[in-house]
Amino acid sequence: MTPPIVLTVAGSDSGAGAGVQADLKVFAAMRLYGTSVITAITAQNTRDVRAVFPVPAQTVTDQLTALADDLPPLAVKTGMLGSTAVADAVSGAARSGMLPNLVVDPVLVSTSGRRLGVVNAIERLLPYAMVMTPNRAEASAILGWVVSTPDDMAKAARQLAATGSRYVVVTGGDADAESPAEGAVDALWTGATVRLLRGPWVETRNTHGTGCSFSAAIAGRLALGDAVPEAVVFAKRYVARALLGAQRWELGGGHGPLDHHGWSGRDGSGSE
Ligand SMILES: Nc1ncnc2c1ncn2[C@@H]1O[C@H](COP(=O)(O)OP(=O)(O)OP(=O)(O)O)[C@@H](O)[C@H]1O
Ligand SMILES: Cc1ncc(COP(=O)(O)O)c(N)n1
């Protein structure tokens, strides 16, 4: 069967734990046909981001139109946008209908602490988002107050709907967190109500790319026809399993990548 097309619009991570490389691994693991528009090139490994080379906005537009003309996606995720000029190019494509089922991961700072984006660039894209997936720090930066507890996350998810995104998931992962008693909690605004999604907490330093993989898996499931709440539940399960698989991996000296191997079924069960 011809696989559905799903597109990532994101930055390149030379260490391949996050960014476009992580997204394409997720799509391949889900047996989808992944395409990519590169917004920036980073020189990075598990320890740090050493340099960021922005891609010119026109080159981003050229990549988007090349795909729209020949390989149109059923769903799209955005990650690192880098500059407001690139964000404008991407929101222009969204406005003209080239980015259906849009998942916006508002990447602002890497796990290793480097700034990768700015709030006012991301805000240009949110009116076109089907779902946005900020972590607590990103939600705090967009809203201007500190989002910390599950109650805060629920309140933030509701407030972030004012940006124009139809659904909102505020994620509760944090590379430096102690194993939280309540597990891994995410808050999902469905347009009518907030649902707290709880999963088991995986104790590991290998958390590089959790947010990228989460938003890519949501886009992947939207391309397969899921509604957003089902896609989000699947993505949470995908990341938990990918964290567990790589729990004891020793790749690099910093926050290592996730395990995308061993997914033989689209349902994430590992079987057909
Ligand atoms: N240690 C963990 N154990 C279980 N689930 C986790 C863990 N860390 C993150 N998650 C889950 O991973 C998903 C992505 O959330 P997270 O908050 O890590 O994104 P993020 O901070 O944007 O990631 P990144 O730092 O890679 O950009 C969420 O469903 C979250 O609950
Ligand atoms: C190109 C690129 N995109 C996104 C991230 C965020 O991922 P993380 O927070 O896991 O570092 C990153 N480090 N690099």
SSE topology sketch:
Layout: E1 5-13, H1 19-29, E2 33-44, E3 49-54, H2 57-70, E4 75-78, H3 84-95, E5 102-104, H4 119-123, E6 131-132, H5 136-143, H6 150-160, E7 167-170, E8 184-189, E9 194-199, H7 210-223, H8 228-245
Parallel strand pairs: 1-2, 1-4, 4-5, 5-6, 6-7
Antiparallel strand pairs: 2-3, 7-8, 8-9
Helix pairs in contact: 1-7, 2-3, 5-6, 7-8
Bound molecules: adenosine-5'-triphosphate (ATP) and (4-amino-2-methylpyrimidin-5-yl)methyl dihydrogen phosphate.
Q: Main attributes?
A:
binds adenosine-5'-triphosphate; 8 helices; 272 residues; UDP-N-acetylmuramoyl-L-alanine:D-glutamate ligase; 19% strand; globular; alpha/beta
Description:
The chain has 272 residues and is of the alpha/beta class. It has one domain: Ribokinase (UDP-N-acetylmuramoyl-L-alanine:D-glutamate ligase), CATH 3.40.1190.20. 34% of the residues lie in helices and 19% in strands. It has a 9-stranded mixed beta sheet with strand order 3-2-1-4-5-6-7-8-9, sandwiched between helices. Strand 8 and strand 9 form a beta hairpin. Helix 1 crosses helix 7, helix 5 crosses helix 6 and helix 7 crosses helix 8. InterPro entries: HMP/HMP-P_kinase_dom, PM/HMP-P_kinase-1, Ribokinase-like.
